Amino acid sequence: MSSRPSTVVLMSAPPPGAQRALRLDDYLPYRLSVAANAVSQLIARAYVDRFGLTVPQWRLMAVLGEDSPLTPQALCGRTIMDKVTVMRAARGLLQRRLLRRQPNAADGRSHQLSLTATGERMYAEVAPLALKYEATLLAGIEAADVARLGQWLRRLQHTAAALTEGGTGPAR
Amino acid sequence: MSSRPSTVVLMSAPPPGAQRALRLDDYLPYRLSVAANAVSQLIARAYVDRFGLTVPQWRLMAVLGEDSPLTPQALCGRTIMDKVTVMRAARGLLQRRLLRRQPNAADGRSHQLSLTATGERMYAEVAPLALKYEATLLAGIEAADVARLGQWLRRLQHTAAALTEGGTGPAR
DNA sequence: GGAGACTGGTTACATCTGAAACTTTCTCTG
DNA sequence: CAGAGAAAGTTTCAGATGTAACCAGTCTCC
User: Fold this and answer.
1) What is the pLDDT of residue A16?
2) Confidence at residue A99, expressed as pLDDT on a 0 to 100 scale
3) Which of A48, A50, A68, B7 is most deeply packed, by most CB within 10 A?
4) Residue B6, class by beta-carbon neighbours within 10 Å (0-12 exposed, 13-18 middle, 19+ buried)?
5) Which of residues 84-113 of B have CB within 7 Å of strand D?
6) Which of A4-18, B8-22, B127-141 has the highest mean predicted lDDT (pLDDT)?
7) How far apart (Å, rounded) are the C-alpha atoms in residues A128 and A125?
8) Does B49 touch chain A (CB under 8 A)?
């Protein structure tokens, strides 16, 4: 299906060189941001309400639930969060005794984080709920399409990161 | 490295009812959030650097560039932003004389916002650049797929909004 | 083996953001 | 047409976020 049925007769197939108009509503970065916001909002609220977890805290638990112990450093990589963010999230979880912190034999500056028994118990509740939310959101989209969506999101992320990094956006 | 060998094997095709494990990396809300962040980052930086515009300001200009005048109220709807956010963005643009503010004959509480000549001129630079960024990000994805991606994002957004709203997430 | 560069983690600060309270105007109803 | 209730816009305040400075332990290379 062509993206612009016929209403916009003049633009339906933008001639090479001619810019199509900027319509915020059809602008992908905008759509992406808005969709991500809505989804984040939904899930964030659920986790605050039910478990008192912020999003960064939730992410730490999700990662540590499947692989632990890890250093804050490693957690940054896995969650794509700033080290300050990881730090703060970890502090909160440590205070609630959901996380344990052990010295890192290999490097004195660092330490190892892992879930406590209480943490594990919470994880056991948190994880299925997360999956339910995902399932609800994706209900009615075919598995193959979900996979593709995931691919594209990854791809967009990497392209954007590369451009940010290199500082070389589209020509000025 | 793989923390849980056996689970992985068992999961490849989740039997109905059995939850698959939660892997943050494959978790769609996470992917969405991370991708949106990367893209936002990229574009936000570009606009701050080149035009001194924040994202909310940029959105106002984008909307007003194609349809104006509009009330703050209407802008909230069009940009899916909080009224406080719209307010602040507008204030900034008004100070820079990119926006004009006229009384709203129909409703004394409100007013009409539109781009000034300077604003229009900036818009004329801003819009093509935005489209270039979009094109760069999407380079190599077929038009049909781009359209689909847009559809899904809309759909996710609406589903999420509906759930947030109704407060009825997946069963507790 | 020690000086300098570096890296992991932490803290401090300035900014941004959103919820709630407030003011003015409008609308509806008796 | 007066008063109650709602809505638009604004201000205020508390919490979250990210950047930059900071400290301590580690690496490297002469």
Assistant:
1) 57
2) 96
3) A68
4) exposed
5) 84, 87, 90-91, 104, 107, 109-111
6) B127-141
7) 6
8) no
